[in-house]
Sequence to fold (482 residues):
Amino acid sequence: MAYVDNTMIIRRDLLARMADLFNEGKLMEGLDRIPLEMAPRRSPKSDRCCIFKERVIIKEKLIPLLGFDLDEYTDELKTLASYAEEALERKNPINKILTVVDEACTSCVKNSYIVTNLCKGCVAHPCMMNCPKESISWNANGQAQINPKTCINCGICMSVCPYHSIIYMPVPCENACPVGAITKDEYGIERIDEDKCIDCGKCITACPFGSIMENSQIIDVMKSIKEEEQETVAIVAPAVLGQFHSKIENVLGAIKRLGFTDVIEVAKGANVTTENEADELLERLAAKAPFMTTSCCPAYVSAVDKHIPEMKKYISHTKSPMYYAAEIARVKYPKAKIVFIGPCIAKRREGMNDPNVDYVMTFEELSALFKGWKVEMEMENSINLDKSILNHGRAYAASGGVAQSVLELKPYVNIKPVIVNGLDKKKINMLKAFAKTGKTSGNFIEVMACEGGCISGPSSNFDPKTGSKLYEKNLADIISAE
Fold:
């Protein structure tokens, strides 16, 4: 779930500074000064141990924002200007989605059970007596202490303590990952297992130190926009309705003012998805299939591919709204660079596998671009909405939106929705049970990795509650204006 905290504010500030430097033609000369400007000497306040560590972390965060994987960061003396030069010269972005900032990822302990000062040092010693690895001893104050080198995190000590003085303290990113794709290495640094990761982005929003970053494509997008001979078309996800305190017409107009040749709502592609999804459901039910699941959320599709292979036969073959919108854009602009804009990290992976999508940019990056390029959402630059788009396509942004769209378009379809609102470990196990038994309470399972739907994607501008309110208001305004 997306929420706003200081690590996100820092990331967005870095993106806006980069965008500003690029727009002013000062990227090469200005990048290496950003860490010094954000962590100046004699700074009255630092969130780290010292300004020097702060500067190193800022530098390391800028590298993935320039579109590079930190695993390739082997020369600590290499300047940001050098990375910027490579970014400006590259033809294609890298194919890795996430990276871990080593220097920022040092504060989470490996063992998850901690003895607090509530320990009374009781004579019974139930924690020590029941520890299967003899990891508990007594310190000079007569209180229990856990040896992290031998502790296996079984939790028995916590369950037997009569004073509840032992607590469970999870590693936030590991705890948030629904598929166990992130663990510590021998140096205590989190590593993401690409064979398990589903690109849901939950680790990014969970990390309190902002140590997990996206490998951004914002440099590639800005290059394309600024190139005079190059057409660049933005296709914008329906979740845009929950991202800005402005009318959708003004937001689309502001995107066009950035320099895009055209702006197309992905809701146009969602209309195609709804039509095909409804027809496919009818065909499958006629063939006595127990149920069908949606295929719009790439994180869910990846979860099935890597962790629930039994579910593959139940996934819809219908393509996502992004796929159809990009296809529409490619027909209209055959030589253009197509840029998908949305709240989703997993869409980067889908975009890499879609021949019609060149780049993927998040709403967070879009906001940074607005700020860095000083583009305001003004009424006089608004864009009229495409009247051919049926509003059920814009409903895809919310959890349950696909089922709602099918019901609205073809009410005669005997659809019985099962809404899986967000993925976590329990819901992954629930889906495994559905796949294994072929049984569930309905016949149409709609799955979205993010609780609340795409409105709450990991690269959204607002928390889920604020985003949902904005989305509902803007959608209602569109409907009432018809």
Q: What stands out?
A: The radius of gyration is 25 Å. The longest strand covers residues 337-342. Residues 242 and 471 are 4 Å apart (CA to CA).
